[in-house]
Amino acid sequence: MKPLGPIPPGYGAIDGELEIGGKHATHWVEQAGRTPLFVYSRDLIERRLAALRAAMPERIKINYAIKANSFAPLLEHISKFCDGLDIASGGELEIVRATGFDLNRVSFAGPGKRDVELRQAIADGVTLNLESENEARRALAIADDMGVVPRLAVRVNPDFALKGSGMKMGGGAKPFGVDAERVPDLVREIVGAGCDWRGLHVFTGSQALSAEAIIAMQAQVLDLAHRIMSEVGTALPKLNMGGGFGIPYFAGDEPLDIEAVGDALRRRLGELPDALTDTELYIELGRYLVGEAGVYLTRIIDRKESYGETYLVTDGGLHHQLAASGNFGTVVRRNYPLAIASRFGSEPEEIANVVGCLCTPLDRLADKAHLPRAEVGDLVAVFCAGAYGASASPSAFLGQGPAAEMLV
Ligand SMILES: Cc1ncc(COP(=O)(O)O)c(C=O)c1O
Asked: To which CATH superfamily is domain 70-285 assigned?
């Protein structure tokens, strides 16, 4: 038997079935008219943001990185509670534009921005988090050609990483940002060229559950920003300190202690050097805001035995749940939180493998899990599906197509 990850708070049972947003899982499937289906809860998103705001110092502004989940109704909803949005492509810019969000509060990071993406972002008043000197010069030339003053920030490749993070994005050679020691020269160059100078962006990693690691990283980011700006001798209007706040996916994972992070940051802000007193400070979060607010529902379409093992074969799979299948940057596959939604709260009776409908051994949603006995027609719920589910899975694989999505 292999353990399942912890079911996030906020989910209960009604009449022996999983409840999401006050209704049975089957209710939402009937509404959608099909499985597989992602159900995202407005209420859980709002509660998450309220708790985060309460824990963080008032001065800290919160950006949502839409790569985690850009489903339009969810984006419209969450953007009401965020100070800004972070995008990573021209495609994401289109999605944000359609929501009517103020594009002056959007920043665009990501290596390899095409000229056409730079042009559109500049035209829309989006802040470009520049990833290289070359990109800076292309952006300045495009803005010059358009006769527009571009809003420019520099993404720094810091000389440290976020300890214990699932994905490290700083510390050593990286395709992201400009190496810290070269940032002062680049800032002088773009400020000298007359851009609308928007500040620095430092993103060191993601999916950290240790408050200690996040506290240390935030302190390092503030020091680094101060060092860079002291060398340049220019004011720092804005510092995007990155994020990295993780959520518990696997057995034994403990939730991040955001109170501890907020308290340490509050103390730290009390001791900031004068040069940073007027700087707007942002954190940038994706999965922490939406991950636990989403559930993926998929129906069991076959139940079979093979050499003594039970397989529950569903109509979903890795084409919507790449991360839960263990194929999105994990070294050792572990089970996400998962349940038989139509028998929620029933006692586990058997060890079963839950697999998807794709013809590959990679397509596994739960490995040797202890579950209530489930039959064809039962619904399976995969939790922590609100981030990097639909937005980060190969839905076109084997001609399967995307899952339905709804915000409830
Ligand atoms: C620049 C940047 N911002 C934000 C995020 C969002 O990370 P997470 O969803 O872990 O908060 C990422 C993730 O890779 C990123 O690269």
From this structure: Alanine racemase (3.20.20.10)
